[in-house]
Amino acid sequence: MKRQYLLGLITLLLLAGCADNKDAVPDMPPSDLYTQAQQQLQSGDWADAIKKLEALDSRYPFGPYSDQVQLDLIFAYYKNGDYPLTLATISRFTRLNPTHERSDWILYMRGLTHMAQDSNFMHTLFGIDRSDRDPEPVKSAFSDFKRLLERYPTSQYAADSRIRLLALKNRLAEYDLASADFYLRRKAWIAAINRSQEIQKTYPDTKAAHESLEIQLKAYKALNLEDGIQQTQTLIDLNNKK
């Protein structure tokens, strides 16, 4: 019985070893390994490209392809949906290359990665509202794209960053609107008013800012504050005329 157990264990170990060997990147000159990785990147074979790039990174950390391998890993991780690894590689690259010539692209990729962390295919497919979800990835993405525009206004990524900033601003405004509505439903009138006014101040040109006035009006009415009611109604009337 013991002998059979040992034979079975040995077989499992051998199979595991074969699997590891199958997945292992063969030893070859860095130029050949890099060429294969590039071919796989171009064909969209992200997983295999990542294996070869990681092998290059670990075997030749100071080789002639070092910087480009890191940049390629950032792109491959992002395309493969490995967002924590994307951000970790970006952080490492930025720390080692604070003034790199492609720093605008690095910021752009960090913004895209943070933005992707807020997205969910099934939510989009079924039209599920995400306004009440964690806004931290959106705030981080907003900061990344804003920093890119401030530091590199003529970057080839500037135009797209501006478009994304607008979408992110609307997303953040919607999150605050959901919070204001939550306070209203909980009868936390003052909190609902404060959050509504914060939206109007921070995101004045968004749809959420206009909708927050209705929440603000209901809260003032619940508190029987006539001055607040009149001022808010005046703002609503002005917005309706635009």
TrEMBL record:
Domain Outer membrane lipoprotein BamD-like stretches: 26-233
Record-level GO cellular component terms: Bam protein complex
Pfam families per record: YfiO (PF13525)
Alphabetical UniProt keywords: Cell outer membrane, Lipoprotein, Membrane, Palmitate, Signal
InterPro entries given in the database record: BamD, BamD-like, TPR-like_helical_dom_sf
Family: Belongs to the BamD family.
Signal peptide segment: 1-21
Annotated function: Part of the outer membrane protein assembly complex, which is involved in assembly and insertion of beta-barrel proteins into the outer membrane.
Membrane topology listed for this record: Lipid-anchor
Gene responsible for this protein: bamD
Principal subcellular localization: membrane
Listed name of the protein: Outer membrane protein assembly factor BamD
Location within or outside the cell: Cell outer membrane
Description of how the protein assembles with itself and partners: Part of the Bam complex.
Biological process, per Gene Ontology: Gram-negative-bacterium-type cell outer membrane assembly; protein insertion into membrane
